[in-house]
Amino acid sequence: MIPLQNTSFKLDFSGVAGFFGGDEAIAAMTSVHIRGGTKWLGWYNSPGSAAVARKYGELSGSRLWRAFFPGAPGAPEDPTCLFDFYGKSGPKYVAAYSGTKIADTGHVGNLFLQMCLLVKPTEVDRKRQTLPGCVTVVMLHSTQNFETDATLPTRASALLAGVPILSSAAACATCAIFKDWFCFAMLVLGILSSGLACFVIGSGTLKFVPPKPARGSPKGDGILLADREIIVVLGKEEVVNSITKGRFMLRFSSDSEHGPSQRHFIGLASLLLTAQFLLQLLLIPQGTLFGQMLFLLTLAISWAYNSYLSSFERHGMPGRILMTKVLDKPVVKRYTLGTRTAVVVFAALVLQPPNPSEILELLPDTETWKIWKRVVGVKLEKREKLSFDEPDYADLAGNERDLLKLLYDDAHDAYLGYLRFWDSNGLEQEREKDSWESRGDDLSRSMA
């Protein structure tokens, strides 16, 4: 006897089953490209079939499939954009030696900034505090400049995939035992459509593509500017270019001349997801209450699993790929200083640009500030101690002299912090020798 057979109550959720959990299902499908080897793990009855079909049907490529899945006006057809691996704005970059200035470092620059912000800062002693800011120093390893596979192995998600897969299979078997063929058929269709979509969409290859370096390029040292954060990057030009000009690219076989059919399979998978959604409207209400409850239970379990997969984006998995696989775990140190003035001076001391006045231009430009910039700029250029005597005040008096003294104190605080946390720890010598491998796990510990 079928449980709950004699009740007159009916669940009518089929109209929303195709849309419920759509955002999580889309995010889970996107994460397939950064979780190595998981395109085979989508065989479960997943919610959000209509949302997934509408989102990824745009990739199908031909006019026929575009008639079924036209997408929003102006929606990108490039899979890299559609899967959100491109399009975000990054911090401004200013090179210390080449004179290069990039107003927007793009998606990769944004990921790099977010990963730097995760590092716990060390406080630098200060006499005063107005608008605190941070200087992050990143010492980049010399890595080979070629395309990199942008995936990370994730054993936990592979093991957890067994939960929705087994629950969907168990629900199928139970419906078959009690001869609820309507719910059984929809469970089988849900498993097949979700599994095929995951396999086909996950067949794309995510790569990190660095720019081609120019011969004879100077050192790539420079700064990235973002609100109260200055990131000093130290390394060869080609490695720094990976941050400022590199990009992720998602490629399907149809993007080359050798395999024009893979995007057509995406269209077929999207069509199958749409058919599943429409058939749910017709067949689920015909099933028994017990079968409907089993169907709903599989959707709930799958939604929870999809929510877990969607957290890979929120928890910075693309950023981890950038830092570990592309940049080979660079050394990252972060320092908090009390004023914007101290932040800029500390960054200039670490960067040691040939023309320090350029970085000092990040500060205001009043007459008092001009005196300060001239004096501090000369001392930075000559690598002199940042201590200030009477001649440095240019015969100022009253409020202007008081302000100049505060600014000099900020510069002196930054100098003392540089000596304590940077120069005295041997990091300056390591920078000169380009021997930072022994500290390559600093970033991993900071993010733990």
From TrEMBL:
Can you tell which superkingdom this protein's organism belongs to?
A: Eukaryota
Q: Which UniProt keywords apply?
A: Membrane, Transmembrane, Transmembrane helix
- Residues covered by region (Disordered): 429-448
Q: Where are the transmembrane segments?
A: 158-178, 184-209, 265-283, 289-308
Name listed for the protein in its UniProt record: Uncharacterized protein
**Species in which this protein is naturally found:** Piloderma croceum (strain F 1598)
